[in-house]
Amino acid sequence: MEARDLELISTYGEKDAELKALYEEHVSYEKILEKMENKPFLTPAEDLEVKEIKKKKLAGKTKMETILTKYRKSEEN
Predict the structure, then answer these.
(1) Which of 21, 34, 75, 77 is the most exposed place for a label (fewest CB within 10 A)?
(2) Spatial separation of the C-alpha atoms in residues 73 and 55, rounded to whole Å
(3) Alpha carbon distance 65, 58 (integer Å)
């Protein structure tokens, strides 16, 4: 994530519960994926779980990006 986005999350996260929740979920998924990807071997079930987590992470990041775009525009004005 870019430094500017992290600044916006830090600034608006306390006021915007959805943004804060999405960011916390994103970080949580990052940690899970990191653990899973450090394993020497994934079972088929674990491989499927990694794929599902990546889909959820991407969906959350898309929602987060929409919210951050709104805040970027508000700061430009």
Answers:
(1) 77
(2) 27
(3) 10
